[in-house]
Amino acid sequence: MLPVAPFSHAPPALSLFSVRASLQGLRSASPPLSPGRPLKALLGASATALLVLVPGRRLRKLRRRVSEDGSRHPTGATSGWTKEGCEVCSQGPGYIWEWRPGVQVHFDRLAPTGGTAGSGSQDFAVVMVHGFGAESGYFDQQLKAVAAAGGTAYAMDLFGQGGSWPTDDPAPNGGSPGWSPVEGGAGDEEWGWGNSLDPRFAGSHGAGLAFGEPAWLEQLTAFVQNVVTEGRVYLLGNSLGGYLAAKVSARGVLGNRVSGLILANATPFWGWFDEGGLAPWDGHLPAPWWVRPIASTWFKSLRSNIGSMLGLVYARAGDLAVQGRLDALAGRISDAAAHPMGAAAFASILFAPRQSPSFGDALDQVAANGLPVLLLYGDDDPWVVPFWAQRAAGRVREVGEYYGLSPAGHCPHHEAPDAFNEVLVSWLRRREADPDAPEVLQVGTVVECRSETSGQGDLIRMERRL
């Protein structure tokens, strides 16, 4: 979900797959672009795939301050729940799941606090998947809303993001020892650059260790299979998370456990290379010798002020409440990016191949399967402009609902949580057969509501378009 750098004396750095994806969008059959928006639609469509990690020691004090702030996780995130293979996180709120030997996945879980979503069975869950560079904490308001509606809420950090990392250096002897996450510590790029893989990370089939789309799809699938105990599961994804959630839903590996799909400004494209193509490397460690200087140089060049960069894709970045959330999110992103595996993970993600089906084909399959879909998009997103939301809505017309929120940008759930949650909870209640659940809006109607859960904040215009 991280943005490109603002223009200064030079244009922002666009990734090669961002340009390729834009050209792919040009070739796709589509309705005309709205006046004044084609350049944004074409150049911004897959800018969400630009991989930005920002370590930098100058932000560590902010990271420490934010890490000590209890607002990252909703109250009750570790309230006595137990599950084999999972344990309470010793470094802060939330849980740790050992996905693979030596690989720990951080997630938040909030048990039902209410029973208004359906008949009271409370046997449904919403699994939330964040955008690139973000983490589970920016779903804090959705975790609370789902729990209050009678569901179990999960938010998982993708591998190589947030708190989901290897426990040890998987390809050691590639850097200097003694990494420290505090001011004055050793360098940031120390893990993952050795010339051999630690056998612990080889996997049961010897597939090895990699970051990126293939690993994330496997991770999300395994998380639902092994951690989520509820019978009915709704997948909610923002940006990259929506792209992944759509693909997992379409693949059918989870059978009839997936009861619905919720997309918030899902990126329609990701990655450079097709699987089985002519990529010089597939992202599996150890990396070829020539990868480190390229990836490390690019990695360092993308260091900047995270808060300012995030502000580019929020429509109301100057609002005090939004700014407070952005500052906290910026600190958490920089904290994760300073992990010693950061640069090697960045390199692995860059070269990881795209997986089938494409995002568009995934939506077609979801619709063919009759799976309900909710599209909740911020209209003021400079990347995933309404053109892409309309394309997605057209593919799921028979099974979907589409709402546009404004002013709201790339992360509407984080920028306008009250408006977002009003639609989300109503949709969940109707899916869970609550006879008292009204539709928030009829197609074609517009309402305004406050942006904050406190009832304060700006008025958000909410329009149902499908």
Automatic annotation (TrEMBL):
GO terms for biological process: chlorophyll catabolic process. GO terms for molecular function: pheophytinase activity. Signal peptide: none annotated. Residues 126-422 form the AB hydrolase-1 domain. One of its GO terms (cellular component) is chloroplast. SUPFAM superfamilies: alpha/beta-Hydrolases (SSF53474). It holds the Pfam family Abhydrolase_6. This is AB hydrolase-1 domain-containing protein.
